[in-house]
Structures are given as C-alpha cells and as structure tokens.
Design brief:
The chain has about 350 residues and is of the alpha/beta class. The protein has a domain at about 1-190 and about 240-265: Rossmann fold (3-Layer(aba) Sandwich). Helices cover about 40% and strands about 20% of the residues. The chain contains eleven helices and 14 strands. The strands form four sheets. It has a seven-stranded parallel beta sheet, with helices on both faces. It has a three-stranded mixed beta sheet with strand order 12-9-14. Strands 7-10 form a two-stranded parallel sheet. The protein is globular, with a radius of gyration of 19 Å. The two termini are about 30 Å apart. Bound molecules: uridine-5'-diphosphate (UDP).
C-alpha cells in the first residue's frame, strides 16, 4: 500500500512509519513539526533514497499540499495521527484544539474524498470521547455514550461524526471507503529495538513525567487528585503499548470492511496513577518523590477498555499487558536519550 501518515514525525506516527516500512509499504509522513521531530524521520531513513519513506513538512489543513501529496504518491491509505493531544491544554486553549484537530482534520478528509484512489482511512480517536462512562460501563464498550469531559475529547468526537457522515455519503455513491476509528486508551512505551521514543515538549503524560523524575530532570511527580472514587483514590487508565497500538492499525488496514467502524484499543484492564508510579520506581530503581496535588481539569475518573469488538472483528489483541513491561521500554529509550531526540 502507499500510505500517508499524518503526524508521522510524532510519537505514535513515527512508530506507525517504522512498522509500515517493516511490512513493505511505501510511506509518506506529513508533519508540521509543531509537536513532532525531524530526527525520527532521519533515523527511519527518510534521507536515504533506497528507503521508501518520504517526509513532507506541512499541515494536514493545507488542502492544496495534501491533494498534491495524495496524487504524486498515489496514496491509497491514510493514517491520520496529526493532532494536538493534551487534555489540560485543550481546556485552557480550546480554539487552538478546534482549529488544529477539527478544521485541519476536515480539510484532510475533504482532500481524501476528492482523491479517487484513497480507499482506507484510519483515524486516531480517543477514549476521551467517552468522558465519564455511566455506572456499569467500565470496562468501556464502544456502545458507551460519548459525552467527552474536555475540548480535546470533543474534537475527536467531532471528527468521528465527520467520518461517519462522509463514509455514509461515499456508500450512497457506491464508493468503497473503509474507515476505522480507533479509540485509543493511554498509549505508552516505545519501540523495543530502541530507535524511537516518546519526546514531548512540554511533557505531561504520566509515564514519561515519572521517568523524567527518575532521571533527575524533575524534582518530583504530582498526583493529580487523590480523592477520586477508586480503590486508592487516584484515576485509573488502560495503558497500551505503542507497538501493540500500531498493530491494531495494521489489522484495521488489512481487514476493515467498507463503511465506518469504531474500535477500542486497550489492554482491557486499568491501572491507577499510584500503580503506575510504583512501576516506574521498580523499573528505574529510583525512589522518585511523589506529591499529592489537586485534580486536573478535564480528567475522567476511570477509563479502561472492553476490547472484545476488535478481538472478534479484526483479530487484534494486546501482546503486552503488564505495566512493568511497558514501562521498561519507555525507560530504556528515555534513559539512553535523557534529552530526547535533540540530545542526539
Ligand atoms: N497524571 C498525574 N500526574 C501527572 C500526569 C498525569 O497524576 O504528572 C494523571 C492524570 O491526572 C490521569 C493519568 O495520570 O489521571 C494519566 O494522565 P495522562 O496525562 O498520562 O493521560 P490522559 O489520561 O490524560 O490521556
């Protein structure tokens, strides 16, 4: 397949490029480098003419640019990762989130529909579209009502609506447009060969923040809320290894039927913030300082997946379900690259 990977220079997108190249696909990575990095593109061989990876710097919201890329590279498949993805930031700067995630996303879909070759579209959606599930709906099935608690979650839900309507309209025209909307739970860890990693500025995600503390790059980790109605008072999340997540995308490319399909991608069990911090302490061997702080706006209480639909329909199942194993891969890359990609 000829695959356009939007956000290909970012954390998850770069892992997708790596996996697609390994599977023999031709890849074009499009990234505006606002949150992504040039280094993973180089590491994956974008400067080497013998590697079928092209890096294009630009925005998915630039319809002319995207149309040109789709045409020039005969793209038949799009994986859309490019987005802003901080829940807290989306609360304080919602317009930026609607502009980058929704307006630019619609421009991308527009260009894809206008290009007759594009047949498959995999969208990075989020468990944040569920908000706080009602009683009895955790683990969360795809049929759970979608009532996001943050602007970030709303931008992802809006894009799901856009894709549903577009896939429906394509079906009316007799066009086979296959859309998989993958609702990610918390993605963590990194490439087990140690080439790619997670490098965000600012870093806000729990596992890399805790590892930064273990590396002495922060003096402590704050727990955002210890009075939640969970066993230990802290929020519960489902942490899925990034390579398992990408495998779910490959399953979706290979197996998804025409029309639009939503799938949860998670391991199917939850870990609390305190359990994650204990895991980072065990893996790193460092007794990081933990401070109990107030709740963070926009956070849901407990979110972990019921992944039975993706098991049954696409045959995907997480291969790593232990937190320590996930944290070990993150620790390996971050301790080898304490200054991220910029550290060389
Ligand atoms: N969290 C925390 N301290 C931090 C970062 C995150 O207590 O420094 C909590 C956060 O409130 C949430 C969980 O860890 O309950 C996972 O947060 P993260 O930002 O990693 O992912 P999210 O669930 O927001 O996508």
């Amino acid at each position: 397949m000829n695959v356009l990977v939007t956000g290909g220079a970012g954390y998850i997108g770069s892992h997708a490029c790596q996996r697609l190249l390994r599977s023999g696909h031709t890849v074009v990575a499009l990234d505006n480098l606002v949150r992504g990095h040039r280094e993973p593109m180089k590491l994956l061989g974008a400067d080497d003419p013998s590697v079928p990876l092209t890096f294009v710097e630009g925005s998915v919201g630039d319809g002319g640019l995207v149309a040109g890329v789709l045409d020039e590279h005969a793209i038949d498949t799009v994986m859309h990762f490019a987005a802003l993805a901080y829940v807290g930031e989306s609360v304080t700067d919602p317009v930026r989130y609607y502009r980058e995630n929704v307006r630019a996303g619609v421009a991308l879909v527009d260009a894809c529909v206008a290009s007759p070759r594009v047949e498959r579209f995999v969208f990075s959606s989020s468990c944040a579209t569920y908000g706080d599930p009602p009683e009895g709906m955790v683990p969360v099935p795809e049929t759970c009502p979608q009532t996001p608690t943050s602007p970030y979650g709303r931008t992802k839900l809006m894009m799901e609506h856009v894709l549903k309507d577009v896939a429906h309209a394509c079906g009316l025209e007799g066009r086979a447009f296959r859309v998989a909307m993958l609702r990610y739970f918390n993605v963590a860890g990194s490439d087990r060969t140690g080439v790619l990693g997670e490098d965000h500025t600012p870093e806000t995600h729990l596992i890399p923040v805790a590892i930064q503390a273990a590396l002495g790059k922060r003096d402590h980790v704050s727990i955002f809320g210890t009075d939640y109605p969970t066993d230990d008072g802290t929020c519960v999340r489902d942490y899925v290894h990034v390579e398992d997540l990408i495998d779910a995308h490959v399953c979706a490319l290979e197996r998804v039927d025409p029309g639009v399909h939503a799938y949860n991608v998670g391991i199917g069990r939850g870990y609390s913030v305190r359990e994650v911090l204990e895991s980072v302490k065990r893996v790193s061997g460092v007794d990081i300082e933990i401070r109990e702080g107030p709740r963070r706006a926009g956070d849901a209480v407990a979110l972990y997946a019921d992944p039975s639909r993706i098991h049954a329909e696409l045959g995907w199942r997480a291969s790593i379900t232990g937190l320590d194993e996930i944290v070990r891969t993150a620790w390996a890359w971050m301790s080898a690259n304490p200054d991220g990609y910029r550290g060389g």
